[in-house]
């Protein structure tokens, strides 16, 4: 079972400096413990600060000598400058085309744009993409893995989000083949196995990885191949 941790320093105690330090410590622990991917998702930060935090997390993960791949929820240039392995694309960016020379006849999608940024540096990129529908999955062509959400009902102080359910997860996994689909949204250590049985290659979460419940999920479920980066 692939494990994909998503950061949220807002859920951590202390001042801003303490939160960032704790994130780096958590990332190192996740990598040592067998987490496959770490998404740096701190959308409120200015890009220069996002890059600095991502670089700090990359350094912590490398120092931990684990196998986690670090992805940045942000521009590909920020990700590569931070030394990250790739990017995560929100669903809202998938259907947009980006600028391309007129002779090309069409724009690039977000996946292709990220690939070009990394290619210019002589590196391969790992791209994960958020998907909430069959349309999103089609627009995410070329991504290495997909995060399908919300699977389960998610209750936060701000709102309650109704889950799409395991049947929808199964449909997403079938439609996306051979690209692995990870379940996101209300996932816990108690329902992770049901996600795998429904066809998910793994799970993604924020709060699950702030405790120790994820540790029991390491190496569970079907074998999956992690995309490589260089």
List the helices and strands and how they pair.
Layout: E1 2-6, H1 16-33, E2 37-40, H2 47-64, E3 69-72, H3 76-81, E4 86-89, H4 110-120, E5 126-131, H5 134-139, E6 145-148, E7 154-155, E8 160-161, H6 166-176, E9 181-184, H7 192-197, E10 202-205
Parallel strand pairs: 1-2, 1-10, 2-3, 3-4, 4-5, 5-6, 6-9, 9-10
Antiparallel strand pairs: 7-8
Which key phrases capture this entry?
8-stranded parallel beta barrel, two-stranded antiparallel ribbon, globular, 7 helices, alpha/beta, TIM Barrel, 230 residues
The CATH superfamily is identified as Aldolase class I
Helical residue percent band = 25-40%
Strand content: 15-25%
Poorly predicted ranges: 98-107
Radius of gyration: 17 Å
Number of helices: 7
Decide which structural class fits the backbone: alpha/beta
How many distinct folded domains? 1
**The CATH topology, please?**
TIM Barrel
Largest sheet: 8 strands, parallel, barrel
CATH architecture heading: Alpha-Beta Barrel
CATH class: Alpha Beta
Q: SSE order, as H and E?
A: EHEHEHEHEHEEEHEHE
